[in-house]
Write a structure and sequence with these properties.
Blueprint: H1 4-15, H2 18-34, H3 38-48, H4 56-78, H5 82-99
Helix pairs in contact: 1-2, 1-4, 2-3, 3-4
Length: 100
C-alpha cells in the first residue's frame, strides 16, 4: 500500500506539476533529516531541485530512487530493534572516521 507521500508525489509527477513535486520532496527531505536518513535526504533533495529544469523524465527517474530509499527507511523503522541497529551503525561510522 503506497504511503500518502508516494500517492501525492506520483500524482504530481503524472501531471507534471513541478511545484507540487518540489513541495512533496522538500517535506520528505526535511523529515528524513530529523531521523538522519542521509541517502533519503540526498535523493529527495535532488528531486526537490528539479523545478527549474522541468524535466519530467529525470523526475520519474529520481522519484523511483526516492521511493526505493523511502521503502528502505520504512522497513528499517519497522524492525522491533531499529534503535539498537541504528546505534550499532552509528558506532561503526564513528570507528571508520577515527581510522581515516
Amino acid at each position: 500500500m503506497p504511503s500518502l507521500w508516494e500517492s501525492c508525489s506520483a500524482d504530481a509527477i503524472k501531471t507534471g506539476n513541478f511545484k507540487d513535486i518540489k513541495s512533496h520532496a522538500h517535506k520528505l527531505s526535511s523529515l528524513a533529516r530529523h531521523i538522519a536518513a542521509k541517502q533519503l535526504v540526498e535523493k529527495a533533495s535532488r528531486l526537490e531541485h528539479l523545478e527549474d529544469e522541468k524535466d519530467i523524465e529525470t523526475a520519474v527517474f529520481l522519484f523511483d530512487h526516492v521511493r526505493t530509499e523511502f521503502e528502505k527507511v520504512v522497513s528499517f523503522l519497522s524492525e522491533d530493534n531499529w534503535i539498537e541497529m541504528a546505534k550499532q551503525q552509528a558506532s561503526r561510522q564513528i570507528e571508520k572516521e577515527i581510522v581515516l
